[in-house]
Structure of Glucan endo-1,3-beta-glucosidase:
Amino acid sequence: MTNHILPFHFLPFFSLLLSTATSSFIGVNFGRVADNLPPPSAVAHFLTSQTTLTSVKLFDCDPQILQAFANTGISLTVNIPNANVIPLTDSAAAQSWVATNILPYHPQTIIRYIAVGNEVHFSGDKTLIANTVKSMKSIHQALLSANITDIKVTTPHSLAILPPLMSPSSGHFQKGYDHVFFGPLLEFHRRTKSPFMVNPYPYFGFNASMIEFAIFKKNDGVLDKATGLKYYNMFDYLMDGVYSAMKRLGYDDVDIAVGETGWPSAGDPTEPAATLDNAISYNGNLVKHLNSGKGTPLMPNRTFDTYIFALFNENLKPSTSEKNYGLFRPDFSAVYDVGVLKSPSQGKGPAKAPVAPSPSDSDQKWCVAKAEATDDKLQGNLDYVCSLGIDCKPIQDGGPCFDPNTVRSHASYAMNAYYHINGQQDYDCYFDGTGVVTDSNPSYEACEYVA
Ligand SMILES: *[C@@H]1O[C@H](CO)[C@@H](O)[C@H](O)[C@H]1NC(C)=O
Ligand SMILES: *[C@@H]1O[C@H](CO)[C@@H](O)[C@H](O)[C@H]1NC(C)=O
Ligand SMILES: *[C@@H]1O[C@H](CO)[C@@H](O)[C@H](O)[C@H]1NC(C)=O
């Protein structure tokens, strides 16, 4: 969904990606459809000094940017635009492309991935689609000829590659492209140990009655009847849809990476879900979920290199929501913080950005289960909170909050942790009417409630 206008109605329900690498990163897309962005060197300095982001994805291979990120420790994903993909099927052209665009900057600039094309299926250009894997192979070969083995070649896909998901386990690639395109592509990924890259956007195609599911808020979950697995967020739901499609072709061992995902923080009146609260919830909980390393129901413990969309708000994008995907404004002030800003002691000086709404009152408050809440509902709260990657070890066997071993006690601990991690806003203790905010500290003995 990057540099083109999406006909949303045409998109199926989702998209996404993953990787089993233990050193997965959270990075950000550096989209530049704007006329007010800071120079690349300032961006590189800002990212290294003020944020914990360790990778940046480009929509081009701009030499100024490659130069700016030299010796920063931040890795890059560079992109070969769709218009240049077909000519690079030629091996001499690919060698020349590598010689011009990569060799002068490698290895002082760390290049993690070369993305060949962008959402080629979404383009609808059959000749482009038919040549993409060939071009990837040609670039990969050109890298090997130059003795470069640490740069992987991939291509990002919108989730339009899957028909609308009836359930995660039913995920499959569009007929006609499954064996012809995705089989050879996944074979290439397996052989070269590169990830299959997807762009899952719960923002596109979520069910309006299930917004909580889309933005990682408390919800009743969605059951996949075929597997018996329950999903509490749409990101996992989409990722497992992709995984199922890969598995159907016999490639469930191939890593998945997320090329783009995000949520707009503002929209016009026709885009009511594009709000600051929703963007904070989606991106903030996504970061926690990814950092937890839990993976998804079908991919336990798998981690995914993930690029949030986007670094900056982009003022030349067409719609209000498209202009407002950024974590930062062009002056480097934060639109909101999702846990990617260094604390002042880590950074050089205080983050200059005013950060989004945080609770103003300093009185200590906790969130606990209401007396009249049923165990059934509380179990749901417990499952949900722990599925987000919030630390539930204290309530597990051997932890200081395991006793009393009751659903009510464990749920209260988890609900309080959720409430605090989300900034103690009253609605984060709502839990469908089963939570209540209290100013009396529920901690006991060695069991310390998050405060
Ligand atoms: C690549 O490495 C091989 C073996 O070390 C060497 O013979 C060859 O000249 C190198 N090629 C390039 C382009 O550096
Ligand atoms: C949206 O979710 C509701 C509640 O689960 C369900 O009844 C409805 O069929 C869903 N709509 C679509 C389009 O999936
Ligand atoms: C995932 O990790 C946990 C904790 O290390 C471990 O107990 C569990 O067996 C792992 N599950 C799988 C499927 O690898």
